[in-house]
Amino acid sequence: MSLLGIRKRLKNLDKAKILILGLDSAGKTTLTKYMRFGIYNSQTLPTIGQNIDTFKLDDWLVTAIDVAGQKNFRFLWEAHYHGTSAIIFIIDASDYERIPEAKEILRTHVFNNPILEGIPIVIIANKQDLPGAIDAPLLIQLLGLHKQFLDRTYAIFNCSVLYGHGVVESFTWLVNELEKKAN
Ligand SMILES: Nc1nc2c(ncn2[C@@H]2O[C@H](COP(=O)(O)OP(=O)(O)OP(=O)(O)O)[C@@H](O)[C@H]2O)c(=O)[nH]1
Ligand SMILES: [Mg+2]
């Protein structure tokens, strides 16, 4: 296909803005780069501010906003909530000690955030390749999701961005939700 043809096709794609949230070191940038380039990049540096990447996902042109997860930078997330089509909240499932912190941030910034009402949420239980990683069913319990937020549209997936496991499943669910909303 010619460049003009590709441009025309991209122009006809539906557009989605996906916000990638989570604590520092959860794997946000690794996931975003994996989606953009199709390979695992182990050379990520902690994000300062945000990275914005665009890639095609089925019939969607996705703009992924990968923000900085460090505590001092989380106030910057605020600027991106408006106009967001979907949220990906990624958790380092091997870091048991930080699960309470992740739970609190997920609750305050995502589930209890009125701007994000009705927006589909994918929770990624990342780093399943590491020993002792908590799997999705247990994580649901630890995050308190089995008793709260039953009115919100969310799904949780086991994932290892390192091995590319669970990434497609997570994004397929997301795209299905976007399709439902578009129709
Ligand atoms: N073992 C393993 N390591 C991973 C996986 N995904 C990411 N990592 C590693 O986790 C570390 C942090 O990843 P980043 O993508 O930089 O984390 P981040 O969420 O963007 O962090 P901030 O930018 O500080 O908010 C890096 O060393 C990654 O290589 C995974 O699936 N398995
Ligand atoms: Mg990052």
Radius of gyration: 16 Å
As residue ranges, the low-confidence spans are none
Give the cofactors and ligands. Answer: guanosine-5'-triphosphate, magnesium ion
Instruction: Tell me the name of the CATH homologous superfamily.
Output: P-loop containing nucleotide triphosphate hydrolases
Shape: globular
The domain count comes to 1
According to CATH, the fold-level topology is Rossmann fold
Helix tally?
5
Content of β-strand? 15-25%
Q: Look at the structure and give the CATH class.
A: Alpha Beta
Number of strands: 6
Structural class: alpha/beta
Succession of helices and strands: HEHEEEHEHEH
| Biggest beta-sheet profile | 6 strands, mixed
Q: Fraction of residues in helices?
A: 25-40%
**Cα-to-Cα separation, first versus last residue:** 29 Å
Overall pLDDT confidence: 91
Spatial sequence of strands, sheet with the most strands: 2-3-1-4-5-6
CATH architecture tag: 3-Layer(aba) Sandwich
Describe the model.
The protein has helices at 3-12, 28-37, 99-111, 136-142, 167-182, and strands at residues 14-21, 50-57, 60-67, 86-92, 121-126, 154-158. It is 31% helix and 23% strand. It has a 6-stranded mixed β-sheet, sandwiched between helices. It has a single domain (3-182), classed as P-loop containing nucleotide triphosphate hydrolases (Rossmann fold). The protein contains 5 helices and 6 strands. The chain starts with a helix and ends with a helix.
